[in-house]
Design brief:
The protein is α/β, with parallel strands linked by helices. It has eight helices and nine strands.
Length: about 240
């Protein structure tokens, strides 16, 4: 008898060690078009999931909602059902002026400016991806932007502009809200992780305009979204991970 995890409503019956997580439940429909033999599994709260195959590899895709807390719940429950490779595919805001809309940003490390990860480990603990997954990202997408990103908890804080300027001056390439907790939990739970982000806001650009453009599927962002999803699928289906 399979025991369902309370939030994601999945069990080990999914029978795969590999998952792609994404904030937006609507993005599940986009990745389904890239996979074969897709089957809907659950949709509870923000957690919508399907299982399909890509190049013969069985892969779970599941949404997490926005932010570290809901993402952490998903990761913890995926770990409980045997998932040991997780790639986040999400959106980001650029922190450098030379990063275009729809360009992919891949995190080599994360500034943990969220609240939840500090409940798991001290602030000096690093958040870094799995080397094998990062190496495969370079194999399939060498032209992507690679660097350190910042994970934070909110868009609308009063000093957001000055905070972003500070981190930009430190060489941070992009920002999101989930990669820090992903990589911390990955190390603690012995899960290989990677974060692939589609840039939807130019540095010092209009946040609302960028997010609305993503929702409306404007060309550059839509292309970046598909490119990021395909990259995650290529990585998790690579035979090198079976060694």
């Amino acid at each position: 008898m399979y025991k369902k995890e309370p939030h994601i409503q999945l069990t080990s019956e999914i029978n795969t060690d590999s998952a792609i997580i994404m904030g937006d439940p609507a993005r599940i429909d986009a990745i389904a078009k890239l996979m074969a033999d897709t089957k809907e599994w659950a949709f509870n709260r923000e957690y919508k999931s399907i299982v399909g195959t890509y190049k013969g590899k069985k892969i779970l895709a599941i949404s997490t909602g926005i932010g570290a807390p809901s993402t952490a719940i998903c990761i913890e429950e995926l770990n409980n059902i045997g998932v040991k490779k997780i790639i986040r595919v999400g959106s980001a805001g650029a922190m450098q002026p030379n990063i275009n809309l729809g360009e992919l940003i891949i995190a080599e490390g994360v500034v943990r400016d969220d609240g939840l990860s500090k409940k798991y480990v001290p602030e000096i603990y690093p958040a870094v991806p799995a080397y094998r997954l990062l190496k495969l990202a370079h194999k399939y997408k060498p032209e992507a932007v690679y660097g350190i990103i910042r994970s934070h908890d909110g868009f609308y804080v009063d000093d957001n502009e000055s905070v972003e300027q500070f981190w930009s001056e430190q060489g941070i390439v992009g920002s999101d809200m989930e990669s820090g907790i992903l990589m911390v939990l990955g190390r603690k739970r012995k899960i290989e992780t990677l974060s692939i982000l589609n840039n939807v806001v130019l540095y010092q650009g209009d946040l609302a305009q960028g997010i609305n453009s993503l929702v409306n599927g404007e060309d550059l962002m839509a292309q970046g979204e598909i490119s990021s999803l395909k990259l995650a699928l290529d990585i998790l289906s690579d035979k090198e991970l079976e060694r």
